[in-house]
Amino acid sequence: MAYVETNDGYEIIEEYNASIARKVTFLIILAIILFLTFCFICTLDTGRDFSMFSVPRIIWNNIAGVTYEKYSAGWWDDYILIQKNLPRIAGATIAGASLAVCGATTQSLMNNPLASPYTMGMSSGACFGSVLAIVAGFSLGSSIGIYGVSFNAFIFGMIPVAIVIALSRVMTLTPVTIILIGVAVSQFFGSLTTLIQVGADEDTLQAAYLWQVGNFYNIGWSDLQLMSFFLIIGSIVLILMSQKFNILTLGDDSAKALGVDATVFRISCMALLALMTMSVVAFVGIIGFVGLIAPHMVRFVIGGDNKFVIPASILSGAVLLLVADTISRMITSDPIPVGAVMSCIGGPIFIYLILRRSSMFKGGY
Amino acid sequence: MRVPRGLMAAIAGACLAVGGAVMQSMLQNPLADPYTTGVSSGASLGATIAIVLGISIIPFGGDVSIVANAFAMSLIPATVIVLLSTVKKVTSTVMILIGIGIMYIFSAITQILKLIATPRQMQQIYMWQLGSAEFASLDQIFMVFVVTIACTVLLYHFRHDLNHLLVGDDVALTMGTNPWRTRIICLVIVSLMTATCVSFTGTIGFVGLVVPQIIRVLIGSDNRYLIPSSAAFGAFFLIVADSLARMVGTTGVPVGVITAVIGSPMFLYLLVKQSRRRV
């Protein structure tokens, strides 16, 4: 009897190790896919013919400070790639990773498969906050300038979350109701964003419109600093906390018994997520559905363990937005905003997720 | 110049408010209106396809072909709603969320189409997208007027059936109302009037949500009175909103912005009230 028990124990351990190995393999495969996609997209639309395998070399040479003779082949490759194409491609990668990690953690925090910075209204809040700071010169931050704008975006990005958390203390909110609150808040902020731009000329209107749809047209190297800063800090913190996210999925009471104060943890994490969302929205505008889809694709393959879901979401979100951005550039001669492409991909999946949930719970929403 | 704009606002307001009142009654859903269920965005996509790509299900007839296209596309969300309410039995919030999902997809496609076609007319496209009563000609106003009147009369004809639906499908059946048939007919009519309106004003959100809800507070949910008073108050509401939109700043804003500022908090309130009731 005792022998059989130990044998069972071994089997469980072996099975566990095998599942960990599977998940690690998935992470490695995702990383390779991201690398290859990144390199391949770097070779598109350059007017030069370097292969995708020379991309890392060109980037490395640039970092290492290799100088080329002016107007030589190597100089042109370096110029086109580093100055012209790479900011946009790197921007899409970083924004995708940021939004996806925000989506994965929001879904765990709210126990809601439909949650993401976009569907919760955080993106619109952040967008309104930054437009308010820029157009009206009104900021809750002490000094006007990029920090005032960012601070404003952060504060307004937190408003939808605050509404949801406050309401959920006085009444039971279903996952669908939470998302509908997010939709109402984003409609409200969206229209206010338009209102405060009254009297703006055609160019400003177009810029505002593009911002509300999300695009990578005018992104430069300097814009990427803040975005990548928050991505790196935020991801490290969230990956370190992934065990707490797992505990939170057991429900608030069980989490408390296991030493995680759900409300405090939720609010502090949402503040961090609002910072990450703000850093993306401030530079590329509102891009929806990346944060919704990427974590679901990952969970579909490797299950719901946040230790793996969070890093895998970072990678898959980057791939997803890179691909969407490339589609938005390639589909016609005029580039279309990447946010519109993302909505076309994300909308059907959003509906699928709603329907799947509601059939599982048979009217129990 | 001012009269057409005011007329258009009045007719569009009446049209959308009646659509909202009927949808709320037949789906027993306080959050339903042509905008939140995706019918408006379907119509908007259809109209854009006709204007930008010149593809229509009726290849002749100018404005008529635009409306026909808008109507055809608005039937897609309408079909989804009928299927969801009858076959799948989802709750009212789930239905609205699916409508919003449809809205995301359709407006994204609409945006892409518009960008492909006319990158230079951005400002006008932008206004149309958000809804505005500014750009209508007298012929178009006449057309919207006729369709709105005809559809409202038709819907008023179903007032008793709609009242029966309010007490539930089973009871309605015993009172001689076929719920499935009533829903389909009413949805088709609502889609038609929404499509006509949206073809010339763009998507104006939340009118169909706000107006009938205010009327319900004042005179109750009896469709005999709800439909005509919604029409009257909707016309009034959109004229006021349009005047506000015109007075903001020097250039004015699309009226859809004003209705969204008023309507989205109201939507939020209804949503919260509904959740509280269920708890």
Question: Overview of this structure, please?
Answer:
The complex is a heterodimer of chains A (365) and B (279). Chain A has 365 residues and is mostly helical. Chain A has one domain (93-361): ABC transporter involved in vitamin B12 uptake, BtuC (Orthogonal Bundle), CATH 1.10.3470.10. Helices cover 77% and strands 0% of the residues of chain A. Residues 360-365 of chain A have low confidence and may be disordered. Chain B has 279 residues and is mostly helical. Chain B has a single domain (2-278), classed as Orthogonal Bundle (ABC transporter involved in vitamin B12 uptake, BtuC), CATH 1.10.3470. Chains A and B meet through helix 6, helix 7 and helix 14 of A and helix 4, helix 5 and helix 12 of B.
Concise summary:
With 365 residues, chain A is mostly helical. Chain A has helices spanning 2-43, 55-64, 73-110, 122-136, 146-170, 175-195, 202-213, 221-240, 242-248, 252-257, 262-284, 290-302, 306-330, 338-361.
Topology:
The complex is a heterodimer of chains A (365) and B (279).
Chain A: H1 2-43, H2 55-64, H3 73-110, H4 122-136, H5 146-170, H6 175-195, H7 202-213, H8 221-240, H9 242-248, H10 252-257, H11 262-284, H12 290-302, H13 306-330, H14 338-361
Helix pairs in contact in A: 1-3, 1-13, 2-3, 3-8, 3-11, 3-12, 3-13, 4-5, 4-6, 4-11, 5-6, 5-11, 8-11, 8-13, 12-13, 13-14
Chain B: H1 2-27, H2 39-53, H3 63-88, H4 92-117, H5 122-130, H6 138-157, H7 159-166, H8 169-174, H9 179-201, H10 207-219, H11 223-247, H12 255-278
